[in-house]
Structure to design on (922 residues):
């Protein structure tokens, strides 16, 4: 076996031609999406009112393990994929650890993250269906940027509801989206009923992903030839992100890298679910005992402190109901600097895997996250996104544990993106003014109190 | 020959182990650096008062065609090199041109540009010499960021004088440099005599690279165990950037790509000189007739409208004299959005190649540059730095010419970096408020009037 290079780049011919459908390998399926009015499983027709046809088909597909990636989309992926799997030689040296550390780096495209993987897919299917307009929400701005890039490429109009606190923290993110031709509206806004309702109740709110989703959904339904696209949480988004895991698996096999643990940050869960898909699949089949760890912010601890229950995906409580770990759709997380992780819920697939014991979850505080981010930047060069640095924090902690025990473990984590548009956050950390906003149990109770009520038999389905 | 992939990545083993010393292949050497007091060629000892020993040796080396890259530095380069040579398939399609377009993309590291190639080299030699502190200037901020990254890696203190207008336009650049541990001072400042003198004469100036150089030079001389490092212009900086050209040559040979023209942006000239080195060398030897085109901003047209004369490198007129195309050290270019190209002079090597007819020069206006940048972003995905987009503009113009003539030319340009920290500029373009600040002949005369006076025989040397 040749020495492992700093960066493992697969060739373009090695880009996976199939997405990996987790639901085809899970022993038990996640509970179905419910119609909030009837508490009955959503039908294809109901979902197609909001989402593109082909995406609904993917959302509901529980049988095909591999779903083909269309050629036009592979052509788009070739502009920035395969993404590198990097050996963090310099971080290992800094930490003086016997562990081997690898990271799959999704930040090499202009959107600065993995979001482009699903953005391109969703815009491609929208175009194929003859749509002319899309709406979405964005938190940190990475999803909005990714979607704007894909919309520019495939020539579709785009309206982005951007979480207000993110729009304020990251004025230049807005400018990037606009450079790619997208229209940006800070959320909550007065352009929708959902936004006006939230503003009336919380006039000073910095917004949340949940609020922005409500507004984007409403606009999509009210606009001709327009659908809504979502950057995380849903099964079809996670499906598109499995290209990350598949590339990682191929690279690991090629260089005989055998991870003892795989670590990812979790906000809506799609990047994490995508990264771990082929690895957790082996675990489900009893062929692997790799540890799989999702890392979330202590300020928005949906997995570590949330409830596994049916809940709305949006703060406005208009979306279908998802069975997931949630803090309650009414929970508005404090304005941390990891906008992409400020979501009250979690991917139903990731939630189910956690519930069934295949994966672990861990919450970390943002000051310790930025400490890790700065260490990484100064040793490995790359400036990580705050979201990605949650996974990095856990990876560093595990590597330091190896230093104590002397174990030579192989740690692989997902570095989902770059922090070039997060300098306000870094400035706050550099100045020592960053705080950790950890909710009290009482804060969380408020969110749980708002969980949807339904006949017991419906919720037990 | 296999189909050319979107991105050609060489393997880490193919990273050149030698820099390419242009002066060893030039038929006539550039005129020597002069001491401004005596108008005699600078001695090694004089240069070592300001620069590191090994860099002075490289600066004055006119005989060795290949200069070995130290192993410790190759280890650093491996973190982000080889950089990709990209086939701009999507741009070609958008332009509907028969031309093939390639770009060597140096923006895949956090500094966002090629600057890291020389930053790492200079910091490495400083460390080796036992220095503990470095000073420098930065315009667009890419050089300052690159140097901060290298200083963090090799553990050396850094003070960066940042052109004031850039510091204002790019507050987050400052934050990045600080995240890597660098100290940033907007220039002109009151921390140096040179700064105070310039402020007294032009209290409202936005500064220039020339001003910032004066301040950094002064601080280096007055601080213990400290030297000055420069991000462009000088021969040793250009030398380090030849890794770009060497990688490009190797990739072209591997895939049988034969450029009809090679295009780069020119500010101080180092990225351009580095990119073209092996190609212009073949031209000098009479074995190639490739066209080589340097593209500069119409607002700072040192090659297309400057004089070929001895001049200071800095506005404070304290540096050694360089024989180069210059607008005069006293010329302060209007505050355009391409901070990295706002330099009154030009690399002596590039100047000499231009003077001897091996290369062409062209000036472009910034509104047309941003038009090109936006076209590129929307088709190829990547958001270019304004500086890099000067080369892109010319490449697009050449590709459009091919569409008219039907010629299937091969165009290769250097995309030196990304524009993530240039969003103020893009916002100004998006809003339609961007202007082209083209100097009048009278404006230029003022700069020329300040060219250093010396006995005629000295200047003719």
């Amino acid at each position: 076996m040749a020495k492992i290079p700093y960066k493992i780049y697969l060739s373009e011919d090695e880009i996976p031609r199939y997405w990996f459908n987790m639901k085809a390998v899970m022993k038990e399926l996640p509970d179905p999406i419910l119609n909030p009015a009837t508490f009955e499983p959503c039908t294809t027709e109901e979902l197609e009112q909001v989402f593109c046809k082909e995406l609904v088909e993917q959302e509901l597909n529980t049988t095909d393990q591999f779903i083909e990636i269309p050629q036009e989309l592979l052509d788009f992926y070739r502009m920035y994929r395969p993404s590198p799997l990097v050996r963090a030689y310099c971080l290992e040296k800094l930490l003086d650890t016997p562990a081997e550390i690898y990271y799959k780096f999704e930040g090499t495209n202009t959107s600065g993250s993995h979001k482009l993987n699903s953005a391109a897919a969703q815009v491609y299917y929208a175009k194929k269906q003859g749509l002319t307009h899309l709406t979405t929400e964005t938190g940190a701005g990475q999803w909005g940027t990714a979607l704007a890039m894909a919309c520019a490429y495939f020539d579709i109009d785009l309206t982005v509801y951007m979480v207000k606190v993110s729009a304020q923290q990251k004025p230049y993110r807005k400018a990037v989206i606009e450079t790619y031709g997208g229209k940006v509206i800070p959320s909550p806004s007065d352009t929708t009923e959902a936004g006006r309702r939230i503003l009336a109740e919380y006039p000073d709110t910095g917004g949340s992903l949940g609020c922005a989703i409500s507004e984007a959904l409403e606009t999509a339904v009210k606009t001709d030839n327009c659908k809504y696209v979502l950057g995380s949480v849903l099964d079809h988004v996670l499906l598109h992100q499995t290209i990350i895991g598949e590339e990682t698996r191929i690279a690991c096999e090629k260089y005989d890298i055998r991870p003892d643990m795989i670590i990812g940050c979790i906000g809506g869960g799609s990047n994490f679910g995508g990264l771990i898909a082929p690895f957790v699949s082996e675990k489900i089949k009893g062929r692997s005992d790799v540890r799989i760890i999702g890392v979330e912010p202590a300020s928005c601890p949906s997995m570590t402190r949330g409830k596994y229950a049916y809940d709305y995906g949006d703060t406005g409580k208009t979306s279908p109901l998802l069975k997931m770990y949630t803090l309650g759709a009414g929970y508005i997380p404090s304005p941390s600097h990891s906008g992409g992780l400020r979501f009250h819920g979690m991917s139903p697939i990731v939630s189910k895997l956690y519930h069934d014991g295949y994966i672990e979850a861990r919450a970390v505080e943002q000051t310790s996250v930025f400490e890790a981010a700065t260490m990484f930047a100064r040793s490995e060069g790359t400036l990580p996104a705050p979201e990605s640095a949650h996974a990095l924090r856990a990876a560093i902690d595990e590597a330091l544990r190896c230093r104590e025990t002397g174990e030579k473990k192989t740690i692989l984590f997902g570095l989902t993106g770059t922090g070039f548009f997060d300098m306000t956050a870094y400035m706050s950390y550099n100045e020592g003014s960053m705080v950790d906003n950890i909710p009290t149990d009482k804060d969380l109770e408020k969110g749980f109190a708002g969980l949807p009520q339904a006949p017991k038999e419906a919720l037990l389905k």
